[in-house]
Design a protein that fits this description.
435 residues, 0% strand, disordered C terminus
């Protein structure tokens, strides 16, 4: 299997999963559907298990390694700026498709039986979500945004303390190396996890469930596809002077895994590995990718809530004006930070609906097909989380363009079992190229 490209292994797992899912659904094989669910769920659980120590140690080590790097603050600001730019473009596309397709017109659903989801979002979730009540709770709950916050504070403190903190930093470096090695043992199981995840999805959702919301589902997939295959390539060409085909060759394993796992955080290790293979300096990637995995959600926090708000408004007979569409754009760009660390796109949707004054029960109408929508949303999220660091590194002159040009020519996991985690970082990775 080591001679079989990793991305091809995932594709094979996806094809087999679809076949087994159809088999389970067509023949009402509940035992097969349950087995597929267990296999997929265990894989995602193992991925998430490694995320807290990986994020914390990677960020602490990265912050300390930025000692003497003058452009660290500029990198962070540019990353945030590009997060906002791409989110604004994505929500604009979502609104545009919603106005063109009218996804809620002619839909016959029992709105009387719809209820608001148990989990809803509010603007205070940003502050309450980023600062943990205690450090242990952040790790126990797997709240990545809180872990990022703690790691930034601890890393900055260690940086200022200097030599006295070096033993603590060395411990973090050792833990990071151990977690990375163990994590890639889990990543090797991705083809099997893919089989279980996609197989359970196919076995659980059929056309009879999708039919009433077919127009809305199609609109979400089209909107995400436009951002994924049109907007991102155009930005790579115009802003980064980069070949989009090379980007997708390097980032495709992460996008594939995101599609089937429906978890940006669970996919984060593969996303970071892919970004590093594209030539982004490791120190910068260890900042941008974990931060993006919690706040950079073009699919879940931009395209989807825009289309869903239009859908809900049309189903309930509410007319939206220009001001409402501007409000949707504002909520999508800023609100993703408010929902960071919380679960799924439902929180972002309820935040949008409540801001617009639309019935929160409208979100309940979409819960049945949310897993199907979440696949393409998460794939778009992860692609955006890889695009932004690549563009920023290219514009800063720190992108290894030779690595970028060859990203797709080397497997995600080398034939000898080694990974980029075993490669020593270059000391000049964050030093801008001469103008």
């Amino acid at each position: 299997m080591r001679k079989f490209p990793f991305s091809a292994q995932i594709l094979l797992g996806l094809v087999l999963g679809v076949a087994l899912g159809f088999l389970a659904r067509a023949n009402d094989l509940s035992w097969l559907a349950s087995t597929l669910d267990t296999v997929g769920g265990l894989f995602v659980q193992m991925l998430k298990l490694a995320v807290p120590p990986l994020v914390f140690t990677a960020i602490v080590v990265s912050v300390v390694s930025l000692r003497g790097v003058a452009n660290a603050a500029r990198l962070a600001l540019k990353t945030l700026l590009w997060f906002g730019i791409t989110a604004l473009i994505a929500v604009g596309i979502g609104i545009g498709i919603g106005l063109l397709t009218d996804p809620g017109r002619g839909v016959t659903l029992d709105v009387g039986g719809a209820t608001a989801p148990k989990t809803t979002g509010s603007w205070t979730d940003f502050l309450t979500g980023i600062v943990p009540t205690n450090p242990v709770g952040a790790f126990v709950e797997g709240n990545v945004l809180q872990i990022v916050f703690l790691a930034l504070v601890v890393g900055a403190a260690a940086l200022l303390v200097g030599a006295a903190a070096e033993p603590f930093v060395e411990v973090n470096r050792a833990v990071l190396s151990i977690v990375q090695k163990a994590l890639w043992w889990v990543i090797r199981l991705a083809p099997i996890g893919t089989l279980g995840l996609i197989g359970h999805a196919v076995a659980s959702y059929g056309w009879d469930l999708l039919a009433p919301l077919a127009k809305f589902t199609t609109a979400v997939y089209v909107g995400c596809a436009i951002v994924l295959f049109v907007v991102y390539p155009l930005l790579l060409v115009t802003a980064g002077r980069l070949n989009p085909l090379r980007f997708f060759a390097g980032a495709w394993p992460a996008i594939e895994l995101a599609f089937v796992s429906r978890s940006s955080v669970g996919t984060m290790p593969v996303t970071q590995r892919s970004v590093e293979r594209l030539g982004v300096p490791r120190e910068y990637a260890s900042f941008a990718v974990p931060f993006g995995a919690t706040t950079k959600m073009d699919g879940c926090a931009a395209i989807y809530p825009a289309l869903a708000a239009i859908f809900v408004a049309q189903v309930f007979g509410v007319d939206l004006g220009v001001g409402d569409y501007l409000l949707i754009a504002f909520v999508s760009v800023v609100g993703s930070a408010a929902t960071a660390g919380l679960t799924g796109a439902i929180v972002m949707l309820t935040l949008t609906l409540s801001t617009l004054g639309l019935p929160l029960a409208g979100a309940g109408l979409l819960l049945a097909i949310d897993p199907i929508l979440d696949m393409i949303r998460t794939a778009t999220n992860v692609a955006g989380q890889a695009v932004v660091p690549t563009i920023v590194a290219a514009r800063e002159g720190t992108l290894d363009r030779d690595a970028y040009a060859n990203a797709g020519r080397r497997d995600l996991i080398d034939a000898d079992g080694s990974t980029d985690a075993d490669r020593p970082a270059r000391s000049d990775e964050l030093t801008p190229a001469p103008a």
